[in-house]
Amino acid sequence: MKKILFSLAFLMSFFAVAQADVVGVVDFDKIVDNYSKVKRASDEISDRFSEIQRYTLDKEREYKKLSTPLEKKNFEESTANELSKKQKAYLQLKEKKEAEIDSAIKNAVRQVAIESKVDTVVEKSVVFFGGIDLTDKVIKTLNTAQAQASQSTK
Q1: CA-based end-to-end distance of the chain
Q2: What is the mean pLDDT of residues 104-130?
Q3: What pLDDT is recorded for position 8?
């Protein structure tokens, strides 16, 4: 009886190993550093932030030129409203770009995993040993798709 139970346990562990997922790993930081769309989005976000800074400096100069308390009060209110709109637009742009990049990366990882017959993909930093590194394939997929999208819009 013990032999049968031992044999059964051995067979069950063999099948569990045989059906284990194929694990892929990606280095997210490397993907972000090498994805061309990230640089463009970062530049666009920085430009928008610089516009807000210039606006603030210009308004400070204008404020110093005002003489009456009523002029200053009206100026402060209108400037605060306009600055609030600019900040809101900046945050919306930043969130939109981050969501687009996140979605593109997830889709590329999914596509590469399917093509590579990988069942599970995790961040490389959490794996001590093993796993198929898909990072370079994901970067290539992202940049190829970005180049194709750029050519089709021209």
Answers
A1: 75
A2: 93
A3: 46
Q: Is the pTM of this model over 0.90?
A: no
Q: Where are the domains of the chain?
A: 21-152
The confidence score (pLDDT) of residue 130 equals: 87
pLDDT score recorded for residue 150: 63
Class level of CATH domain 21-152 = alpha beta
- The CA distance from 111 to 21, in Å, is 17
Other CB atoms closer than 10 Å to residue 51's CB: what's the count?
Answer: 13
3-state SS of the chain? CHHHHHHHHHHHHHHHHHCCCCEEEECHHHHHHHCHHHHHHHHHHHHHHHHHHHHHHHHHHHHHHCCCHHHHHHHHHHHHHHHHHHHHHHHHHHHHHHHHHHHHHHHHHHHHHHHCCCCEEEEHHHCCCCCEECHHHHHHHHHHHHHHHHHHCC
Single-letter code of the amino acid located at 149: A
Cα–Cα distance measured from residue 124 to residue 68, given in angstroms and rounded to the nearest whole number: 62
Residue 114: predicted pLDDT: 95
pLDDT at site 55: 96
